[in-house]
């Protein structure tokens, strides 16, 4: 497979058809390597080009990619998908294996005294990259997990008394194993809320697993069709070219508020099932994800169907179940499905 890169994208010359073709080709190239995970690939590509707003330390407003939490048993191509995407866009990629003995400095870096010069120098950690894979994030202690909070929200890290901007794009993909319960530290709500989506990665189908055995170790590398700078250009292009009606914004807010007060949409039995609903920050994420979903569907405007499509992945990790819901085995996905059904569509 060819690995020659196409010319860099330009915001002034890019057309909707060209941008859509580049994203579609990227998705196809990833699927040629990662077999049997079409939903995972599509959602990750959506998150990559999603424009999540944030405020920098300098007071300016900017946008960045939507971070994703991947939940699934070992061996279902979570890491392979992340590395394949990084190769497909020629991005710098770092992987951190989260363990209980890992320290915050092992992620963001630290200040080291240089005896030869008599001065301190800054050693930057692996967080300074385009794509950061935080493997088994829930194995790290809460103190170490918190090292990613500033990076994920403000796209910067502070070492000693100095703040350093992270490159654009900066994208965190984190994995966690849903099976093992010992030796793990549940992610706090503040950390979970910084992930645009939680994707549950299941097993491939029978035919896909047979094809994987046929391919063996001979699977090709993806073609390199985009550069990291192209990601930011296409991301901004989508943000400005896909229209959002105020009725869509109102629908997103009503969905989010229904997660806090289910009785207001005719689901009083869910009041005892939900301990915490989605945050206002989530509204921004859902809106941005809906824009990319509409764009990839070939439209220049968002429909309620786009919101309904991304809402489960964007909300399931933000809704905290009550003790009663856990005892009665009422899943978050069940709660989300009921809220989608109960909330009137504009």
CATH topology of the largest domain: Rossmann fold
Order of helices and strands: HHEEEHEHEEEHHEEEHEHHHEHHEHH
The radius of gyration computed from the alpha-carbon positions, rounded to a whole number of angstroms, is 21 Å
Give the overall shape.
Answer: globular
CATH class wording of the largest domain: Alpha Beta
Considering DSSP H and I runs of 4 or more, what fraction of the residues is helical?
40-55%
Low-confidence segments, ≥5 residues, pLDDT <50?
Answer: 1-7
- Biggest β-sheet strands, sense, barrel: 5 strands, parallel
**What is the terminal-to-terminal distance?**
46 Å
Q: Architecture of the largest domain, according to CATH?
A: 3-Layer(aba) Sandwich
User: Got a strand count?
Assistant: 13
Number of domains: 2
Q: So how many helices? A: 14
Helix/strand-derived class? Answer: alpha/beta
Could you outline the blueprint of secondary structure elements for this entry?
Elements (H helix, E strand, L loop, with lengths): L15 H16 L6 H11 L3 E4 L5 E4 L3 E4 L6 H11 L4 E5 L7 H4 E6 L4 E6 L6 E5 L6 H4 L3 H6 L1 E4 L2 E4 L5 E6 L12 H4 L4 E4 L5 H10 L12 H14 L4 H15 L13 E3 L3 H17 L7 H12 L4 E2 L1 H5 L4 H11 L4
Parallel strand pairs: 3-10, 3-11, 4-7, 7-10
Antiparallel strand pairs: 1-2, 5-6, 8-9, 12-13
Helix pairs in contact: 1-2, 10-11, 11-12, 12-14
Can you describe what's shown?
This protein has helices spanning 16-31, 38-48, 78-88, 105-108, 142-145, 149-154, 189-192, 206-215, 228-241, 246-260, 280-296, 304-315, 323-327, 332-342; strands at residues 52-55, 61-64, 68-71, 93-97, 109-114, 119-124, 131-135, 156-159, 162-165, 171-176, 197-200, 274-276, 320-321. It is an alpha/beta fold and 346 residues long. The strands form 5 sheets. The protein has a 5-stranded parallel β-sheet. A two-stranded antiparallel ribbon has the order 1-2. A hairpin with a 4-residue loop joins strand 5 (109-114) and strand 6. The longest helix has 17 residues, at 280-296. The protein is globular and about 70 Å long. The protein starts with 15 loop residues before the first helix and ends with a helix. Mean pLDDT is 89; it is low at 1-7.
